[in-house]
Structures are given as structure tokens and as C-alpha cells.
Amino acid sequence: MEIVILAVVIAVVALVAISGLVVSSRKKKRLPPAPPSSPSVTAPPAEPHVGEEAETPREEPRRTIEEVDLPGATATEPEAPAAPPAPEIEVPEPSAGRLVRLRARLSRSQNSLGKGLLTLLSREHLDEDTWEEIEDTLLTADVGVAPTQELVERLRERVKVLGTRTPDELRALLRTELLQLVGTDSDRTVHTESGVTADGQEKPGVVLVVGVNGTGKTTTTGKLARVLVADGRSVVLGAADTFRAAAADQLQTWGERVGARTVRGPEGGDPASVAFDAVKEGVAEGADVVLIDTAGRLHTKTGLMDELGKVKRVVEKHGAVDEVLLVLDATTGQNGLIQARVFAEVVDITGIVLTKLDGTAKGGIVVAVQRELGVPVKLVGLGEGADDLAPFEPEAFVDALIGD
Ligand code: GDP
């Protein structure tokens, strides 16, 4: 009998222990996952890329069962964790002199042009074949037919005048001629001066960023916001590329990093109304500049014309647009020039941004695209880093082409 009672007691104790374990492990399973960080606390990815999902860093250390089963805390109502600290607003690099700092990126792919020309010009006999080679070098570097012919013509004259050529003389000569080709007297400022709205309020500078998707338009808008913030301006972003699902998120992430608000609309919504609201927000906030990222679907020219034309007209209800920047992927060469032509017919381009000059792009595209549009290159993209957008400086560019 005693044995039976003992057996029953052991069984009961065992049961209680097992059920306790089960409850405990159920409690553990029922624990809600680490609370999702709110947009304001999610550390943005170092570099937002197209199609790349934002990684949500695990900010909560793993909790033990003991920590979880604190007295008073239930499995379904865990104690709210302390809010993680708000993201730090980054301080972007100053924009002045960026091209000089980033010069190494440029020369990696570009200096074959300068070096090639210098080698050819150093030949003892500059015969017709050599001049043809010089011409080919320029054409291969995307300089374009007319500017190539002009440059070769001028080089021929100057070399003749020079007579004997030392390497230093040749380098100086080539530098002068390339600089002239690139142009040193264009106004390359991105105009963002504030003005006055139709109803007399102070209006921020308004910049429209246009270009075909994939050229780096959204990234450039984000990087430009950083350039402006670095220069002490306050910025509002308008995510008027409502057709590409990730574009607004991507832009917002860029904005959050430098404390710039992003105005966005519903996916697939009317880009013009987002652009209008962005400027309205800029006026209300007393911001210095509103940057508007537009949709770049190059489906048909009429479609593009309707879309961009409308965005510009609607924004102009607030007052003038100060800059229309066309973003071109420098690696696309001739294709980029065709895009440039189409956009220029649709909207008055006031400046060009050449992206991806750090890649396989050929430097001559700077010359070709300026000729094509009669508009200066104002900014160049030299990498995927947040501060890899540089104001274009002809001297630094040409120096990178020919090397020191
Ligand atoms: P969008 O569709 O025109 O808005 O293009 P995105 O801004 O999303 O950029 C497309 C891709 O180009 C992204 O992976 C960018 O990081 C990349 N990109 C943009 N500018 C540059 C640049 O100057 N250099 C390099 N290497 N990549 C760039």
C-alpha cells in the first residue's frame, strides 16, 4: 500500500514538473518576437540599393526564460522594452573639393584616355597614322565626332608650333586643350536660391531630378540632399517616382540619415500631386530646398512628356523650378546621349549629373553630353557611397584624365 501511495506521489510530482516545463516552454514560444523597430529607430542600410531589402538589425539581446518570466509579467503581455535610441543624424562630408578627394576613383577607368594621348603625342614622328590613332583614342573614349575633330585640329597646330616636345610641355598642352573642350566658363552651380511663391510666401529652391530608371536618379537625389545639408541648407524630399515600389522607401531612408523629411504619396499615385505637396511642405517648413525625384519610365516620348510636363507645371503653381537635373549613367555611352536628347525635348534641362564615372565609363562622355544638350555637367557620381557625389570641377577632372 505504502509503495502504491509513494508511486502515486512520485507520479504526481513528475506530472507537475513536466507540466511546469511545458508551460514554461510554451510561454517562451508565445513570446512575441523582438518588437519591430519603428521607422525612426531602424538604422537605415549603409547604402540603399535597388531591390535590396532593408536589413533590420537585431537590437534586442536574446532574453533568457528567467528574464522573461519576471513576476507580474505574462507571456502575452511582456514588459515593453526600453525604446532603442533614435538614429543619429549623420553629418555628411562637405561638398567642396570632393572631386579632388575622389580623383583616384575617376582615374582608375579614365586615365587610359589621357595616358593614351600622351603616349601617342610623344612619338618622334607624328605622321598621319599617329593622328588617326589619336582620333580613334578620343572617339573610343566617347568624346564624340565633332569635339574629337576640333581637338585633333588644335593639337596638330599647337604641336607644330611647339616643335620639339618635352613630356612636360606635352602634358601642359594637352591639359589646356582638354580643359577648353570640357569648358571652364560654364555656371556649374546647382541653383537652389529661395524665391517667393505665387501668394507671396518665401519659397524654397526647387530642383527636379529626372532621368531613366536605373541611371542612379533616386540615389543621386539622396546624395544631393547630403551635399546640400553639408553646405548648411535644410532640405525636403519629394518622392514623385510613385511607379517604382522601392523608390519612396529608398529616398526616405536617405532623407532620414540627414534629418530631411520625405513627402510621399500612395504607390502608383499621381506624381504631380506628390511633387506639389513636397513644395507645399517645403514652404510650410521654411526649408531652403525641395528636391523632387521623378519617375523615369521611358515608355513613350508622349507618355514621358505628359508625366514630366505635368509635374513641372503643377510645381510651378507655387513658383519657378530652379533646376532640372538630368541624371545619366556615364557607362551607357551613346545610349545615354539618346536618352539625353529625348529628355531635353520634353523638359528644359538646366544641368547634367553623370553617375557611375567610377566604373567602366569613359571620360569623354562629359564632353559629348555637354555638346549634345548645350548644358553643363554639374555633378558627378563616383561610387555607391553616401558622399560619392561631387560637384564637377573641370580642372580636377582633366588632371585625373592625364595624371600628374
Ligand atoms: P534609379 O532607378 O535611377 O532611381 O536608380 P537608383 O538610384 O536606384 O540607382 C541604381 C543603382 O546605381 C544603385 O545600385 C546605385 O547604388 C547605383 N549607383 C548610383 N550612382 C552610382 C555611382 O555614381 N557609382 C556607382 N558605382 N553606382 C551608382
Helix and strand arrangement:
Elements: H1 2-30, H2 65-68, H3 98-101, H4 103-121, H5 128-140, H6 145-162, H7 167-182, E1 195-196, E2 202-203, E3 205-210, H8 217-230, E4 235-240, H9 245-257, E5 261-264, H10 271-285, E6 289-294, H11 301-315, E7 323-329, H12 334-346, E8 351-355, H13 365-373, E9 377-381, E10 389-391, H14 394-402
Parallel strand pairs: 3-6, 3-7, 4-5, 4-6, 7-8, 8-9
Antiparallel strand pairs: 1-2, 9-10
Helix pairs in contact: 4-5, 4-7, 4-14, 5-6, 6-7, 7-14, 8-9, 10-11, 11-12, 12-13
The chain binds guanosine-5'-diphosphate (GDP).
Guanosine-5'-diphosphate binds at residues 49-50, 211, 213-219, 296, 355-356, 358-359, 381-384, 388.
